[in-house]
Structures are given as C-alpha cells and as structure tokens.
Amino acid sequence: MQIDVITLFPSFFQTPLECGLMGKALNKGVATVNLINPRDFTTDKHHHVDDIPYGGGVGMVLKPEPIFAAVESLPILPPREVILLSPQGQTLNQNLLRELATNYQQLVLICGHYEGVDERVQHIVTREVSIGDFVLTCGEIPALTLINGVIRLLPGTVGKVESIYADSFEDGLLDYPHYTRPPVFRGLEVPPVLRSGNHKEIAKWRYQKQLEATEKKRPDLMAIYKQNKETK
After folding, report:
1. Which of 153, 181, 213 is the last residue of a domain?
2. What is the pLDDT of residue 232?
3. CATH number, domain at 225?
4. Do 36 and 5 touch, CB atoms closer than 8 A?
5. In the chain, N or C terminus with fewer CB closer than 10 Å?
C-alpha cells in the first residue's frame, strides 16, 4: 500500500514512523509513506499556504491551490481514497481501518490546520475522517493514528496474525485481561485458569472477561453487541 500525506510539517512523522512495528513494516516494504509539503507547490515568493477567510472571522484558512497541486502531483494507484482529516468527518474505528487496509491500494491524507481548509478542497476529497468529537491544533495527529491503524492490519506487519483478531473491537467487544510472569507480584496473583493449560476453560474465561469489561466500560458497545447477536 502507498500512503501519501499532504502535510505542512513532514518532520512530525519521521520519528514515529521509524519506531517499533511501524518502522519494521516500512523497512520491509509492507507499505510506503510519502510526505508531501504543500508549501512546495506555492507560487508566491513567501510560500503562503493560508489566507484570511472571506466574510470575516478569526484565524486563517488553508488555500486550495497548494493542496490541489500537491494531490494532483501524485501518481494515481487505484483503488485510491483521498481523505481529509477533519473533526466533521466519519469517526475512525476498527471497521473503517479494516476497510481502508483491505480495499485500497493508495491512501492520500490531507492534514488540516488553522481554522480549516478552503471548502473547494472537498472536490478532490472522497472521504472525511475524524478521530473523535474534539478539536486538535493540526491534522497530523489523526493522520498518524490512521496510518498506524491501517499498516498494523497489512500482512507482514504483525508476526502472529491471530493476535490481531483477538484485540479490542475486532468482534465488537473489548479485549480480555492479559498477564505474564511472575505468577504472583506484590500479592497479586495471575488467575489460576490461565496457568491450568486447559485451553477450553481459558477461552471461556477470556470471553466472560470480555463481556464484563465491555458492559462496565463501554455499555454502548455492549448494547450493539447484544443486538447483533439477537439478529443472527
């Protein structure tokens, strides 16, 4: 997969994309991330990428010309999705990450700044994505979140693929508790069932803990999970 990021701050991505599984996956060629600065596509001597809004108001708005030029400079690798990271977008969740990782060869991510992006940019955008009902100073943070979530699902990133499908949200429930050595730490003991070697009982225990965690922490998810079970 190719991921092209239209960003005013390419250096924001450099260290995160070199670390851990992301760094290993990119080094192996699981995906390619290209960072494109729209300032490189400005035509004035000061390389302005923003201007005051028509109609008045506070703040500045990202101009359409550099963004259009940056996106149009990219080779098209269909199927492609051009995504604007925006608080007004579709909320990012595991299902959307899976859709993007499975159905697309190229993702173009546009990172917003200031008061927003000139509305005419919507003409080259195919989807808006948000990471939640809050506002950040830049679109780079949600873009990095999306990149991490998508690349994690691509073949070759995670060593044991089955671990992906046991994570939170994959089946509509939160994850079960995890333990490792030592068996007792400061009087806190690993549940005996996990040390029993009885895989059937371990699976039952883990499922029960998923139900309990989801009911306690995310009753909204639990309601959806119950509804889906009833309709099957």
Report:
1. 153
2. 72
3. 1.10.1270.20
4. yes
5. C
